[in-house]
DNA sequence: TCTATTGCGTTGTACTATACAACTACCTCT
DNA sequence: AGAGGTAGTTGTATAGTACAACGCAATAGA
């Protein structure tokens, strides 16, 4: 009973602490691509291109936010727009070659940072932690 | 080997997804107190009052940021300043009664949300997850 | 004791991320 | 053809943040 309460309390505190720090840490370590830009660019890469609207829906962002983020990424030469010939309202977004390079660098660097943080964890703990996080995020998505 | 990689990749993805969403979720659920205000106010409550400089150091925030956050909390009537009679440069910050009430409400509501998300977890998983999060955050702090 | 340095906090300025609302351009259905 | 919906942009506003310049108080050194 008390134990359950305590664990939830700790989870809350640690998740909160992490959330508070995350953006600033990411910005410090990867100045060339903010956490949000990184996520969007990675999604484009992953999906082999998609629409701004899809990004907005997937990340619960306003379309205006996505529009500006994409405009910034385009200005940096990391993303290009291809107007859909079937529907001229639609722009399919793709990473450019330069965007791919930067994305690969940041991904590698993020991966290094995570590996470093988790260096002394054994495989079983890593696996469990990954599973817990996935489960937690799924629950949060489900419950809003 | 591959397994280790996969787990780290998942942890990275899920932590990133969580970080991206956290502030907006918090703001939606607790409009009266942002994630940062909440954290600062909770710290004051916890420490039985402290200085702006201490908050800045503890949360790796610029002193100007803290100054403005505190000003906002004061304007809302959630925090009061008591000039240290020993050192007139120093203001010791305390939650007001109203601040305590709001803090208690938000804390309770956050706690409910976490309990809801974690409702179907058994005690052992909760305990492990809490431990992992603590370990992860400690490593991140240690490694910058 | 006078001065120089340090520490605490505020204010000016700038930037990023974000939302909401109004708008344009385009598409689809009747 | 007109109505209504969809994709994306732009205007406006807000929050959170940092950095730099400042003012005031305290303290250490000559």
From TrEMBL, chains A, B:
Pfam families: MarR. Residues 1-138 form the HTH marR-type domain. GO terms for molecular function: DNA-binding transcription factor activity. GO terms for biological process: response to stress. SMART domains: HTH_MARR (SM00347). This is Putative MarR family transcriptional regulator.
């Amino acid at each position: 009973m008390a134990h359950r309460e305590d664990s939830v309390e700790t989870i809350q505190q640690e998740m909160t602490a992490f959330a508070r720090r995350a953006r600033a840490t990411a910005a410090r370590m990867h100045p060339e691509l903010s956490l949000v830009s990184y996520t969007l660019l990675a999604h484009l890469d992953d999906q082999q291109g998609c629409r701004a609207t899809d990004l907005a829906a997937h990340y619960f962002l306003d379309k205006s936010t996505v529009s500006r983020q994409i405009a910034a990424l385009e200005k940096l030469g990391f993303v290009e727009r291809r107007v859909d010939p079937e529907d001229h309202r639609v722009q399919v977004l793709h990473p450019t070659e330069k965007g791919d390079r930067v994305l690969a660098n940041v991904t590698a660097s993020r991966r290094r940072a995570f590996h470093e943080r988790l260096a002394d964890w054994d495989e079983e703990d890593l696996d469990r932690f990954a599973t817990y996080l996935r489960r937690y995020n799924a629950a949060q998505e489900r419950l809003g």
